[in-house]
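In practice, a research group might receive sequence data for several interacting partners and want a quick structural hypothesis before committing to experiments. The following worked case mirrors that situation: the sequences arrive first, and a predicted assembly follows.
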Amino acid sequence: MVLSNPQIVDCHVHFGDVEDADLILSIMRDAGFKRMNLLSIISPVRVNFNPEDMYMKAAYPDLFYIFGGLDYSSTLLGLGKAEPSLTEQVDTLIKIGFDGVKMVEGKPIARKLLGKPFDSDFYKEYFEHLEALQFPLLFHVNDPEEFWDPEKIPEWAKQRNWYYDETYPTKEALYTEVENVLENCPKLKVIFAHFYFLSGDLERASSLLDNYKNVHLDITPGSEMYYDFSDKREEWRDFFIRYQDRILYGTDINNGMTLEQAVNHANRIRRFLETEDPIRWGTYPGRREPLIGLKLPDHVTRKIYFENFERIVGEKPRPLDLEEAIKECERLAGLVSKLRVKEEFKALSWMRPKVENPAEHVANLLRKMK
Ligand SMILES: [Zn+2]
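A structural hypothesis for the assembly, expressed as tokens:
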């Protein structure tokens, strides 16, 4: 079956190496995307991926939205509080031309590394600031339930050190922290990544969206969610139609994938939304295959593909201030050498840099664009 040809903004892409710019552009072309939203994540070895994302916006200003990561270097170095403060960091991101903030901090391994509850004073003013400015946040909280269960965790997740024993916060504890944040900041403009890992609990997903009108969910796999959707296909199809203004298309495409892998991945999600084709997913042995797609109406998929994103974040990417971007890369370059890598958090060091100091490398590239 041939897929429709709508405009698509992929709200959830990771980019970690300026050498791979052409790959990302090819993926965008072959997947038929209009734009991508690049999400920077924190990293104990390089602070975050903001330099790479700024580079893409500088080079292709109309193609990329960018959501910046925070700087926890002072916390990781044992100073306790964030320096600069998290609210100052938000102001800097806005000044540079970021379109939102990305937090992967609610992934259990990241939450354990940082040790700062989301409903504690460490984050209080920061979330209030985001709410007051209505600056969008894309927030990864939790992980698939199976990752806490030694019997059920899939092998690929175990290999990435994503098995959570009792030294990690529980799924429920993380929900409580984040829901306390929403109680305090009910208008926070937030997109929860990976459906907030609620695809096993339709009632809870509904009440979350009913209670907080600025909460949205992206359907970036977590492929467990597609098995869940398919298992209760009729109920979930009704859910998607009912909450059509609150759901966003995302893929987790990143520069570690080949062009073919990325395009197949993007199309498989679309086939699930647009058709009722049987689809073999193959990531959770023992779960029911093939999956059966939702075959949503066109006006619903249009919202999921780009209309919701453009309403929440903006019709076009914000302009980048090149001088401010260079200044921030230089600041980050100075921090990288100070960071010690803790062995047990290696699993958090996604996309290890090919150059010694990636922020310095990007600063040099940006200077040449002046
Ligand atoms: Zn992601």
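Before designing any experiment, note the following. The mean pLDDT is 93. The domain at 9-266+300-368 is CATH 3.20.20.140 (TIM Barrel).
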